[in-house]
């Protein structure tokens, strides 16, 4: 989310492209097309974030920027040339990195939270503990918040490390337990 997604429609032959159409496979979704013989492009239900990456005459790649969760779904590129008609299918999955925090409460419990990630982040602790538990909260927009609790009331460790593992990056937060 927030970055650029480019879906490339393969050139199937050296034959000149007559028509290219991008569509999202849902009712009332964006339809973007280019007709070479009239040098004409058309848009239907497309936001300004969805456009051609380059000139559709030279490269009919679709550009979505910035990507948001609502862009997730299946896309089709349909081309027509003297070599025939071709359909290419793409599935766009949007990844949202979580916001990560590490805090503690008065009862000597460390709280590591990975908020609003998609897919959900994994949380682990160093040192590993039998005194940790986890909760998960699913949000209407498809993101997930995971909260892990690490009790150290009877621990002699000087610090605890929360490891948050996520497809795009890993994060490590350390808390001093002596305070």
TrEMBL record:
<keyword id="KW-0472">Membrane</keyword>
<keyword id="KW-0812">Transmembrane</keyword>
<dbReference type="InterPro" id="IPR013106">
    <property type="entry name" value="Ig_V-set"/>
</dbReference>
<dbReference type="Pfam" id="PF07686">
    <property type="entry name" value="V-set"/>
</dbReference>
<keyword id="KW-0325">Glycoprotein</keyword>
<dbReference type="InterPro" id="IPR007110">
    <property type="entry name" value="Ig-like_dom"/>
</dbReference>
<dbReference type="Pfam" id="PF08205">
    <property type="entry name" value="C2-set_2"/>
</dbReference>
<dbReference type="InterPro" id="IPR040012">
    <property type="entry name" value="CD200R"/>
</dbReference>
<feature type="domain" description="Ig-like">
    <location>
        <begin position="1"/>
        <end position="93"/>
    </location>
</feature>
<keyword id="KW-1133">Transmembrane helix</keyword>
<dbReference type="GO" id="GO:0150077">
    <property type="term" value="P:regulation of neuroinflammatory response"/>
</dbReference>
<keyword id="KW-0675">Receptor</keyword>
<dbReference type="InterPro" id="IPR036179">
    <property type="entry name" value="Ig-like_dom_sf"/>
</dbReference>
<dbReference type="InterPro" id="IPR013162">
    <property type="entry name" value="CD80_C2-set"/>
</dbReference>
<dbReference type="InterPro" id="IPR013783">
    <property type="entry name" value="Ig-like_fold"/>
</dbReference>
<comment type="similarity">
    <text>Belongs to the CD200R family.</text>
</comment>
<keyword id="KW-1015">Disulfide bond</keyword>
<dbReference type="GO" id="GO:0009897">
    <property type="term" value="C:external side of plasma membrane"/>
</dbReference>
<dbReference type="GO" id="GO:0038023">
    <property type="term" value="F:signaling receptor activity"/>
</dbReference>
<protein>
    <submittedName>
        <fullName>MOR1B protein</fullName>
    </submittedName>
</protein>
């Amino acid at each position: 989310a927030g970055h650029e997604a480019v879906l490339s429609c393969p050139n199937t032959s050296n034959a000149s492209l007559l028509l290219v159409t991008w569509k999202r496979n849902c009712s009332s979704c964006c339809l973007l097309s280019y007709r070479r013989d009239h040098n004409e492009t058309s848009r239907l239900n497309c936001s300004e974030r969805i456009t051609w990456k380059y000139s559709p005459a030279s490269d009919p790649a679709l550009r979505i920027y910035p990507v948001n969760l609502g862009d997730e779904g299946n896309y089709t590129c349909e081309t027509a040339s003297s070599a025939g008609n071709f359909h290419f299918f793409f599935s766009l999955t949007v990844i949202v990195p979580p916001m990560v925090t590490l805090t503690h409460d008065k009862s000597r419990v460390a709280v590591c939270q990975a908020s609003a990630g998609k897919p959900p982040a994994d949380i682990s602790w160093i040192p590993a503990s039998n005194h940790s538990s986890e909760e998960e909260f699913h949000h209407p927009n498809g993101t997930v918040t995971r909260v892990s609790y690490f009790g150290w009331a009877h621990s002699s460790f000087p610090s605890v490390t929360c490891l948050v593992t996520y497809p795009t990056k890993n994060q490590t937060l350390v808390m001093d337990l002596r305070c």
